[in-house]
């Protein structure tokens, strides 16, 4: 126990606590965070690839009822026949499209013999900080082709407001927009592809890139493993140095004069 007594010194205790906290963060926070992002990105890439290689299907096969959502079919192309509600319009603000700021224009669409779904008609560029003139969607019955999108989480601390006589929101959350417009909406929304009735600037699909998240997650796991190993190595090195010092002192011959000086020195 005497050999390990140095571990109870404040410096070693502080170092051990730092290593324990760092290891906990690596395994419980940082690695799961990066691996979770990798899982979400990989899932989205698979959905995009599937949508590119699969012909469109009728919307009602994916969203049969008003309370339907299709989280497992995001980016899937669908077709729907119905009509827009041109007097109900919401803008998603602070969006970035092709590297520049934009508004995304959102309008409900009533599917014939089906649910009412929110349609992202595309984007327009702001004029300074103001909303530009936006073309109204057609009022007649039309058929549209679009991609299914998941409802976004509500941006914390960002309340909807009205500016330039247009309702504006910070995220495309169908529940929030349904409450604002008093129009029931499905859980998923639609994003128009190019050359569609009522379409504006086309919003492209993300690039199929898994990103560095998997490697980052593995790195944090590695750091979490190496940190306690490093602490163990320092402890082992300290014990070895102390043992060698003790052996060196024990092996050093003591003269009679040194013994007498030590003896009489203690008595004084």
From TrEMBL:
Membrane topology: Multi-pass membrane protein
Pfam families documented for this protein: SURF1
Identification of the protein by name: SURF1-like protein
Organism: Mycobacterium heidelbergense
Superkingdom as given in the UniProt entry: Bacteria
Entry's localization field: Cell membrane; Membrane
Keyword Coiled coil: no
GO CC terms in record: plasma membrane
Membrane-spanning parts: 12-33, 213-236
Family: Belongs to the SURF1 family.
Record keywords: Cell membrane, Membrane, Transmembrane, Transmembrane helix
Keyword DNA damage applies: no
